[in-house]
Amino acid sequence: MPIVKVVTRVAQRFRERGITLVVLLVPEKEQIHVAALPAADQKALAHGPELLAAIHGGLISNGVASVNLLPKFRTVTAQGTRLYWRDDTHWNDAGIRLAAEELWRVMEPLEQ
Fold first, then answer.
1. The CATH number of the domain where 19 resides is what?
2. Do 83 and 91 form a contact (C-beta atoms < 8 A)?
3. Is 88 helix (H, G, I), strand (E, B) or coil?
4. Tens of pLDDT along 78-112?
């Protein structure tokens, strides 16, 4: 997958300079609330989860730290927590907090 190769090269360049790259894969609001969309839009987004999972898996396999927020965002949303503003595509406070927690879960061990 070309994106994985490019990001891996960037991560290697960072590593040479003593910097650890952590990639945060951010889902769009529509990917989280896909069931609320018209059928045609649902079909257009059908391969999104597999694409993010493939990118995430490829990065991890290449030794690049990565966080895929899609699964966690879908789970928490299904439990009734709103992560996006009702009238906007940006995260609300709960979305920001969850993203930060998931990112820190991967970054904290790198600090050791």
1. 3.40.50
2. yes
3. coil
4. 999 999 999 999 999 999 999 999 999 999 999 87
CA angle, 67 then 69 then 71, to 5°: 115
Show Cβ contacts of residue 72 under 8 Å, excluding neighbours closer than 6 positions.
98, 102
| Count of domains observed in the chain | 1
Q: Report the C-alpha gap between 22 and 103 in whole angstroms.
A: 8
- Residue 24 belongs to domain spanning: 2-110
H helices within the chain, ranges in order?
2-16, 29-32, 39-44, 48-61, 69-78, 93-110
- For the record, the structure tokens of 7 come out as 């990001």
CB 100 within 8 A of CB 91: no
